[in-house]
């Protein structure tokens, strides 16, 4: 079973990343789903989505949980029955979760691709990236910023929050592997740590509310 990477962020926060290489039948072995999740799985038309869904249940097992320990609130945010915090992500060949004892956390994995340059204006100010050396560097940095905002949005989980207007990821270099971010929304400010890593043409960003 290809557990790709485990990251101990702090003694109470852990990231688990899975590379989805198995068949759907292989991933289904040993996994017992709740009725709700079994129905969700049955309703997925894409085999890739079903494989990703099942691989996340293996990541739950790595963290000491089963599907029965997981539930979703009205906004679609995942929670654990024991009160610990969890965030989940799936992108093509990789899935990931972050689990924390007390901190609010979010995670996002994105495939790096030039498509992001076409939508950059929807979540950031593209002119800020003109000093970068080449298109590859721009794609990498934009993917990190998008991933950071996705991860933070998963923490905040409130409708109406705008990636462009309300979430500000502070300036960073690609070599930094970290940054900070702020949300300014409805008169309230909150801060978040941002950490990122790149592998196999993908970017993983995880965030912790400060």
Automatic annotation (TrEMBL):
Note the superkingdom of the native organism. Answer: Bacteria
Alphabetical keyword list:
Transferase
**One example GO MF annotation:** holo-[acyl-carrier-protein] synthase activity
Gene3D superfamilies from the entry?
Answer: 4'-phosphopantetheinyl transferase domain
Q: Which InterPro entries match?
A: 4-PPantetheinyl_Trfase_dom (IPR008278), 4-PPantetheinyl_Trfase_dom_sf (IPR037143)
Pfam families assigned to the protein according to its UniProt record, in alphabetical order: ACPS
| Domain 4'-phosphopantetheinyl transferase span(s) in chain numbering | 105-194
Q: Does the keyword Transferase apply?
A: yes
Q: Does the keyword Cell membrane apply?
A: no
**In its UniProt entry, what is this protein called?**
4'-phosphopantetheinyl transferase superfamily protein
